[in-house]
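Researcher: Go.
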Amino acid sequence: MTSPNDVDPALRNRLIQIGFPEDPGEWKQGKAVFSSNKLEILGHPVMEAWEAPYMGALAKIATRNGGKILEIGFGLGLSAGFIQEYKPEEHTIIEVNCDVFSKLEDFADRSRSKVIPLFGDWRDLVPSLASNSFDGILFDTYANSQTEMKNVCEAFVFFDEAYRLLKLGGIFTFYSSQVKFNAECEQGLRKAGFSNIDGISVPVPVPKDCLYWSHDTILAPIIVK
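Model: Structure:
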């Protein structure tokens, strides 16, 4: 999702004005509206088709070592589709919204490589996953509260778990909401235990009416444990 440091404040404020449910758990049952180029939940633009080049880059990074991949957030299934092209040994996907999870189950049924769909909030599910068990992790969720919207980047709260879950040499990437690493994000990664921090700039064809991104590139992080 968006970062207050990198996106026009007017765009961020328009998202906040849409409003969030008082109970973040309501996001689970929120109606998901799918169109040819967008996914909306409770009026929020969760994912749009223009993100495809970026999702492709994140998938390539996350699958660099092959093996077992953890993906958090399914959305339109863009990154999941790209991950499957790299034929992982196993592909675990966590999704919190009921309607989107139904799409994820369909995706799992028709995928070439083994897909394990898990329904629920990653905060509830991830602690039960074994440490040092994944070769790659891709984190891309949508802020479901005003507090999270104001975070420096949505993945910030996941950094500690990413380090715990990865095997030595495993790769972590995420929707960065940044053009380049800002100090807070990099400090958060180092605090979690990561020292090998890199990334690439990915060109993206952002439409003028996009509410959550206003640049022509996004940073694709490459974080190695």
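Model: Residues 1-7 have pLDDT under 50 and may be disordered.
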